[in-house]
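User: I'll paste a sequence; please echo it back and then give the predicted structure.

Assistant: Echoing your sequence first, then the prediction.
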Amino acid sequence: MEKRILTYRKYIDGLLTKDGLDWAALIREHLIQISFFQHERLIHLIVTVTFALLEVIVIGLCVTAFSPGVGLLAIAILILLIPYIRHYYILENEVQRMYRQYDQMVAKRDNTAVWQERE
């Protein structure tokens, strides 16, 4: 999924440098892609939070009743949790970039300035 979202975002970045495209059709397609990636992001958030809670529970078990098996379980869950956090981080940031692309596409369609959020 990481390769797909990065490839798609770069493809849209390339389209945004062009003029004379059917922006209404591109916006519709872009919104569909955003919804796919939002769904993926939600699923990965649920999995990541579940693994994080499981890690907290196992660490609590390590503190109260340590055994080598529980220690190994804590390490195994942590090893799995790190890639989940990385993947969720990538999905979250790329979807946020896709929102900005959407704003740019609407601006191109309407021949207006790009709406920008003030931070």
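The chain has one domain: 20-108. The CA atoms of residues 100 and 119 lie 14 Å apart.
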